[in-house]
Structure formats: C-alpha cells, structure tokens
Amino acid sequence: APRTVLISGCSSGIGLELAVQLAHDPRQRYQVVATMRDLGKKGTLETAAGEALGQTLTVAQLDVCSDESVAQCLNCIQGGEVDVLVNNAGVGLVGPLEGLSLAAMQNVFDTNFFGAVRLVKAVLPSMKRRRQGHIVVVSSVMGLQGVVFNEVYSASKFAMEGFFESLAVQLLQFNIFISLVEPGPVVTEFEGKLLEQVSTAEFPGTDPDTLSYFRDLYLPASRELFHNVGQSPQDVAKVIVKVIGSARPPLRRRTNTRYTPLIALKAMDPSGSLYVRTSHCLLFRWPRLLNLGLRCLACSCFRTPVWPR
Ligand code: NAD
To answer: Ligand 1 centre and the CA of 302: distance in Å?
Structure first.
C-alpha cells in the first residue's frame, strides 16, 4: 500500500515542490496530504499537481501553530495514520536584534520549533504503535552554524537539530527514523518575504553603525549569496524525495556542497573561533569576495592569516 506522507507549508516553495514530486512518483509509492495554513492559496499547488490531484495528492488545511487545526487535519486522514511526516512550514526573521520585537522572535519559535513539535506529538503515538514511521525535518545550514543578523531564525533551527537528534535515539527502538535536511540558500518566496519585511522595517533603537552594517554590508552580501549559490526548490525537493525513499534514512542530509567548507570550519576548531572569525572576515573585510562563491571564500580565509584581534 502507498505510504501516507503529510507535509506542512505546501502553498509555496520547497513544500509545494516536494508534494508534487512525491505525488508524481513513477512507482506511486506515496499518498500525499499536502497541507497549508490558508487554503485560499491552494491554486498554485493544484495546478502543479495536475492529474495527481484527488488521486495521489489531496490538499488539507493545517496551521502548525494550532492544536485544533492539527487535530482536525489528522482526523481527516484515513485511520489518522501518517507514515511520513515532513515538517516543512517555517518563517524567517532577519535584522539587528535591538530592533526586533520579542513577539516577532516568539513567532519564529512558535512556527519553526513548536510547530514541528506539535505535529510530532500528534503523529507519534500511532507511529509507535505500528512500529514504523519517518519524520523528516526541513532544517537549514543555519541549524548547524550561526549566521550574522539571523540569530533568532538560526536559534530556532539549532533548537530543531537538538530536539530531533535527541528524539532519534529513542525512536530507533520503535523503528521510526528521523531525517534533518539542511539546505543552504534556496530561491523561494522565503527570501522575498524577508527582504520585504526589512525594506519597510525601521529597527527602532538600533545604533547607526549596526544599521549600516546590516543595510550596507549584510543585505547586499545576502542577495549576492542567494544569487550565486542559491538552489531551486525543485533541487532541494529532489534530495528530500531520495531521503524519504531510502531504506536506511540518514539523520542529517545537506543539500548544497558549497557549504561544506564553512561547516568544516566548526568541526576543525572546537573552540569555535575559526568559524566566527572567518564569518566576520567574510562580512566586514571581504564582502566582495562573495562573487567568487563560498568555496573560494572559505579557502581564502584558511590561507590568509589576518584574523581580527
Ligand atoms: P516558503 O516561504 O515558500 O515556504 C514556507 C511555508 O511555510 C509557506 O508556505 C508558509 O505559508 C508556511 N507557513 C508559515 N507559517 C505556517 C503555519 N503557522 N502553519 C502552516 N504553514 C505555515 O519558503 P521555503 O524556502 O519553501 O521554506 C520551507 C522551509 O525551508 C522552511 O522551514 C525554511 O526555514 C526552510 N529553509 C529555507 C531556506 C531558503 O533559503 N528559502 C533555506 C534553508 C531552509
């Protein structure tokens, strides 16, 4: 029988692509429940799903921040049994910390972290009873390394990494697998929404130096990074499809090899200084090097002994 795959956040981006690719699986291995908070936005998904709609793909409402919505959604699934849960829904937050409200920060955790926890709590009893299941989490390279001006978003992904790595140990006993997928930049609405937020935000209470670092250094560098090394949601979804189809799913799967050097910096230097100083150099000393791509950047930092004091 096909495996029931429930995906959160399918109105756009990676979630939409993943739902469509799984629904078009040539071996018809999946019955996809593609969920979204606002069903008014289902048009794009339905068009992309084509013939699969109503066959191997159904659309359902799900707000990961609401217990009631989660319960209602699971009630609509036959037997309430989810074989593969994909925690994809997420929001970003970028900007100088002093200018961001606690409420905005809490919303990031409520969606990215507690949203995933809420869904896991809801599907776990049935997965445990059946001694089978796979929980896939769309994390980020920012769940492995802190990124300047993304402190809260990055913290929410670190929280997911810690939570799911811990849970993976217990769940192995129940034949339930966990996979954290860690994309680098992906060209979706995500970045557009963030840039829209920051273009109108004033970040009250932020000093002029910090504001200028954010607007004049970070934002152009970030745009360039997305442009140079950003992946398409299709490519990221392809990686997730492989992870879901795997007989022994990995705990972690990165999607962008361009990030390997930066992540290696953390492993190479347990004090953490190498990573922090390299990141500092990339932003404050050589932002123009971003044109060359991440691999070159990291190599330049290895070779150049000009660490700031
Ligand atoms: P996206 O904005 O297109 O997709 C995010 C989806 O989550 C949207 O459909 C949005 O409506 C949904 N969502 C937000 N709050 C929700 C809620 N309360 N309930 C249900 N759905 C909700 O962006 P994307 O890039 O496809 O993001 C998908 C995931 O990938 C996110 O978890 C994001 O953190 C992660 N990610 C994105 C990037 C990137 O550069 N775009 C990089 C690494 C990881």
So the answer is: 33
This complex has an ipTM of: 0.99
Q: In this structure, which residue's CA is closest to atom 34 in ligand 1?
A: 90
Closest residue by CA, ligand 1 atom 10: 9
pLDDT at 266 over 50: yes
Q: Which atom of ligand 1 is nearest to the CA of 69?
A: 19
Query: Hey, what long-range contacts does 29-32 have (CB within 8 A, 24 or more apart)?
Result: 29/2, 29/3, 29/245, 30/2, 30/3, 30/4, 30/5, 30/56, 30/84, 30/244, 31/2, 31/3, 31/4, 31/5, 31/56, 31/58, 32/5, 32/7, 32/56, 32/57, 32/58
Residue nearest to ligand 1 atom 8, measured at CA: 9
* Residue 113 near ligand 1, beta carbon < 6 Å: no
Boundaries of every domain in the chain: 3-204+230-255
> What's the distance, CA 285 to chain centroid?
29
Q: Is the CB of 216 under 6 A from ligand 1?
A: no
**Average pLDDT over all residues of the chain:** 91
Is the CB of 143 within 6 Å of ligand 1?
A: no
- What's the average model confidence in pLDDT over 232-238? 97
Q: How would CATH label the architecture of 3-204+230-255?
A: 3-Layer(aba) Sandwich (3.40)
